[in-house]
Amino acid sequence: MRTFVAVEISNESTLNAIAKLQSDLKIEAKPVSKENMHFTLLFLGEISDEMAPKIMESLSSVSFSPIEMNFVDVGAFPNPKSPHVVWIGVDKDAAKNLVELAVQVEEKLRPLGFRSDKLFKPHLTIFRIKSRINDISQELNKFRALEIGHETISELKFKKSILTPTGPIYSDLQVVKARQ
Question: Is-catalytic flag, 84?
Fold first, then answer.
């Protein structure tokens, strides 16, 4: 099964603000649906059914406080001139806390053979771009100062992903709560 570890966006007003931003951005790209908004902390890829309980046991020892975040920036990877992904960023403190959480997840799962192939950069993917499109720098600049919303992250999730022609379907395999 295809899996990853993530934290999700659940604040309805923030999700609605993101959906509005998606409709206001005039780009040729597939928007990520509201129910699939998340930060991938570590992509695990294909795992066996036997590996899942070992991952769950390792993740159960992850310890973190709730993470307060404000969504503050809009950008594109690898860059706005040749985008593959359009994202929303978070404030500095939230970014630091998300990086620390991603590092902890990787440290817990490293003994099982999982490691990140790149440095974690906190971003919320709002569009995926399959075919080449024109430079979107000017379009993104219109939304630089936009106040997009707020979220409190209080759960870490081990998720399964099933790819379908209409988009991925995610389901929770495990939920780890933040300490209060």
Answer: no
